[in-house]
Design brief:
This protein is of the alpha+beta class. Helices cover 47% and strands 22% of the residues. The strands form 4 sheets. The protein has a 5-stranded antiparallel beta sheet, sandwiched between helices. Strand 16 and strand 17 form a beta hairpin. 33% of the residues are buried.
C-alpha cells in the first residue's frame, strides 16, 4: 500500500506541474494581449503624428492657395488664357508668402482640366479635382497624386469668375521632408507609397522589401511582425486618403527589432529553465522533508505496537514537534495571517477614504453665484477615487476660467495624476492668458515627468463676465454644448489640439465664442455619454442633447439635474463603468438679468449655431 507521504508528494508534484503550465499559458496570453495593445498604440500614434506633421506642412500651402483664389487679377488672367501674367502673379504671391512656399510647385488649370500654369512641380490637377474644389467652395488639402502617380502634399483652391467656376490653383510640395520628420518622431524608418505600391518617399535610402506592401494590401490600417533575411521587422501601416477621391497612399513605418526579439527569446528560455529547475529542486526538498517529518510518526507507531504486544518497558516518545501541535500552530499562524490581512484591508480602506477626502478638497467647493454668471458642477468617481476633475478660478485680469478634464485610467494612479494636472493647469492659467498657450505649456510640464505614460484630455474656457466673450482651447476632450435661452442645443466648434502629457511641444488652437444673456454651457466627460445599461448600450450624445433641450429651466443646476436624472434612469441598476463629471455655466449678461437679448446678439447666436 502506498505510504501517505508518497501520496502527498505525488499530489503536490501534480499541482506544481499544473501551476507551471498555467503560468506559462497565462504568460503567453498576456504577451499576445500586450502585443495587440502595442500594435493599436503604434497605429494611433502614427496616425496622430502624421496628421499633426502634415497639418504643419499644409498650412502655408493653404494660405498661399487661399490668397491666390482671392486674387482677381489671377482669375482674370486664367479666363483670358494669359499664362505669362498668371505665372507672374503666382511668383509674386510666392515671394510675398516666403518661407517654404517660395519653392513650392504651383499649377493652375481651367475648369475643363486644361493646364494654364505649371511651375516647379508635376501636373496634379484634373477636371475631377477642379470640380471637387468647386463643390467644396474652399481649400482642399492633403495627399494628391500627380500625373506620374507620385503622391504630393497639396492645397487646392477654386477660382471663380463672374460666370462661375473658372478653374483651380494647386500648391504642392514634396512629402519627403514630412516623411523624415515622422521617422524622427517615431524612431523608425518611414515610407509613403503610392496606390500602385511604389515607394514614392522614404526616410531611409536603402531598398525596402516588397513583402512590406503585401501586408497592407487588403487592410486599411494594421501592424504585424515580418521576417526578412533573418531580421524581425515591426511594420505599421495606415492609408492616407487622396483629396481627389482616387486611390489612397499607404504610410509605412518599419522598426528593426531583431536584437530585442533575440533577447526576449533567450530571456524566456532562461526564465522557463529557471522555473523548471526551481520546481525540481522544490519537489526534491519536499520529498526529503516529508521523510523527515513522518519519521517521528513511525517511531510513535512502533512504540504503540510494542505497547500492544505488552512490552511495558518501552519508554514514552514525545517528539519535539508532534502533528497535533504542528496543526494547531499552523492554524494559529493562519489565524494571525488572517488578522494581519484584515488590518491591512482596514488600513487600505482608510488610505482610500483619505485619498477621496484629499481629492475632494482639491476640487473647488463653493460654486460662484455672481451677477453676471452662475456655475454648478458634479463629479462621481467610478471607484473610491477617480481621474476626472473640474476646476474654476478667477484670473488676474477680471476674467473667469473653468476647466473639465479626464485622466486616462481609474483608481489611485489616475487620482494622483489628476492632482498634478489640476495643479499645473490652475497655476499656468494664472500666468498665461491665452487658453491655447496655457494648455501648450501645461502639456510640456506634464510630459516632462510622465514615466507612467498617462494622459489627460482637457477643455479650458475663459469667460469675460462683462461682455460674454469666451475664448477656449480643447485638448482632445469632448466638445461642450451650448444651450440657448429658448432651448436650442449646439456643440461648440472644435479646436486643434491633442491630449496632454504625451507629446511635448505640440500646439493648441484657441477659439472664440460670443455668449448671449441666458446662454448656458454644458461641459462633460465621456463618463456621461458612455454610461452603459445592463445590456452594454451607451447613453450617447443624442440622449444627452435631448436631455439638455428638455430641461424645464435654463439654469446650471437644472441642466445638471436633468442630465443626471436621464443617465440614472438609463443605466438603472448597472454598475458605473467610468467617472462621471459635468459642469454647467450660465451667463446672465452684464446686468445680471439674462431675460432678453438684443436683436444683434440673437443674430450672432444664430450665426454661431449655423457654423456648428
Amino acid at each position: 500500500m502506498m505510504l501517505l507521504r508518497t501520496r502527498i508528494t505525488l499530489m503536490v508534484s501534480a499541482i506544481a506541474l499544473v501551476v507551471i503550465f498555467a503560468l506559462v499559458a497565462e504568460g503567453n496570453w498576456r504577451e499576445r494581449s500586450a502585443r495587440a495593445d502595442m500594435d493599436a498604440a503604434r497605429i494611433q500614434i502614427q496616425v496622430s503624428a502624421w496628421a499633426a506633421l502634415t497639418q504643419n506642412a499644409l498650412q502655408p500651402l493653404e494660405e498661399l492657395a487661399r490668397a491666390a483664389s482671392r486674387d482677381g487679377a489671377l482669375t482674370a488672367a486664367l479666363v483670358a488664357g494669359d499664362a505669362t501674367a498668371a505665372l507672374a502673379i503666382v511668383k509674386r504671391l510666392q515671394a510675398e508668402a516666403g518661407g517654404s512656399v517660395a519653392a513650392a510647385g504651383v499649377e493652375i488649370v481651367a475648369a475643363d482640366g486644361a493646364r494654364v500654369v505649371g511651375a516647379g512641380g508635376e501636373a496634379a490637377l484634373t477636371s475631377a479635382v477642379v470640380t471637387a474644389a468647386g463643390r467644396n467652395a474652399g481649400v482642399l488639402s492633403g495627399i494628391l497624386h500627380t500625373a506620374t502617380g507620385a503622391p504630393v502634399l497639396a492645397a487646392v483652391a477654386p477660382l471663380y469668375s463672374r460666370s462661375g467656376l473658372a478653374g483651380a490653383v494647386a500648391v504642392t510640395v514634396d512629402p519627403l521632408p514630412t516623411v523624415k520628420q515622422l521617422a524622427a518622431a517615431l524612431g523608425a524608418d518611414v515610407a509613403l507609397t503610392d496606390g500602385a505600391g511604389a515607394f514614392a518617399a522614404a526616410s531611409a535610402g536603402r531598398p525596402w522589401p516588397a513583402k512590406l506592401l503585401a501586408a497592407a494590401r487588403d487592410v486599411e490600417r494594421g501592424a504585424s511582425m515580418l521576417v526578412d533575411g533573418g531580421r524581425r521587422l515591426e511594420v505599421t501601416w495606415t492609408t492616407v486618403a487622396d483629396i481627389a477621391g482616387e486611390r489612397p497612399a499607404v504610410l509605412l513605418s518599419v522598426n528593426d527589432v531583431t536584437e530585442a526579439a533575440r533577447r526576449r527569446f533567450w530571456l524566456s528560455a532562461i526564465s522557463l529553465g529557471g522555473v523548471v529547475s526551481a520546481a525540481v529542486l522544490f519537489l526534491a526538498f519536499l520529498h526529503w522533508y516529508m521523510r523527515r517529518a513522518f519519521r517521528p510518526l513511525h517511531r510513535v507507531i512502533r512504540m504503540l505496537h510494542a505497547l500492544a504486544r505488552g512490552e511495558r518497558a518501552v519508554p514514552p516518545y514525545e517528539p519535539a514537534r508532534d502533528d497535533e501541535i504542528g496543526r494547531l500552530a499552523a492554524t494559529a499562524t493562519d489565524f494571525r495571517a488572517g488578522i494581519e490581512a484584515r488590518d491591512q484591508l482596514l488600513k487600505l480602506r482608510q488610505d482610500l477614504e483619505a485619498a477621496h477626502t484629499i481629492q475632494s478638497s482639491i476640487l473647488p467647493a463653493d460654486p460662484p453665484d455672481r451677477r453676471a454668471f452662475a456655475v454648478r458642477a458634479y463629479m462621481r468617481a467610478a471607484r473610491d477615487v477617480g481621474g476626472d476633475f473640474f476646476d474654476w478660478f478667477d484670473l488676474p485680469d477680471g476674467r473667469f476660467g473653468f476647466v473639465v478634464a479626464d485622466v486616462s485610467g481609474k483608481g489611485m494612479g489616475a487620482a494622483l495624476f489628476m492632482a498634478a494636472a489640476c495643479t499645473v493647469i490652475r497655476t499656468t492659467a494664472r500666468l498665461i492668458a491665452d487658453p491655447g498657450e496655457c494648455l501648450a505649456r501645461a502639456n510640456d510640464l506634464l510630459a516632462a515627468n510622465n514615466a507612467a505614460s498617462m494622459f489627460v484630455t482637457v477643455f479650458y474656457g475663459v469667460l469675460c463676465p462683462k461682455t460674454g466673450r469666451m475664448v477656449y482651447a480643447n485638448g482632445g476632450h469632448n466638445p461642450p454644448y451650448r444651450v440657448s435661452a429658448d432651448g436650442v442645443v449646439s456643440a461648440l466648434p472644435g479646436t486643434e489640439g491633442m491630449l496632454l502629457a504625451m507629446f511635448p511641444g505640440q500646439g493648441f488652437a484657441t477659439a472664440e465664442l460670443a455668449l448671449v444673456p441666458g446662454d448656458c454651457l454644458y461641459l462633460f466627460t465621456d463618463g456621461v455619454t458612455e454610461a452603459q445599461d445592463a445590456t452594454g448600450a451607451l447613453f450617447g450624445e443624442r440622449r444627452l442633447t435631448d436631455a439638455l433641450a428638455a430641461a424645464a429651466e435654463r439654469t446650471p443646476q437644472a441642466l445638471l439635474d436633468q442630465v443626471l436624472d436621464r443617465v440614472g434612469r438609463f443605466v438603472a441598476d448597472a454598475p458605473q463603468a467610468d467617472d462621471i463629471t459635468c459642469l454647467a455655466l450660465r451667463w446672465h449678461g452684464p446686468s445680471g438679468s439674462g431675460d432678453a437679448a438684443s436683436e444683434t446678439q440673437r443674430k450672432l447666436r444664430t450665426a454661431n449655431c449655423a457654423r456648428v
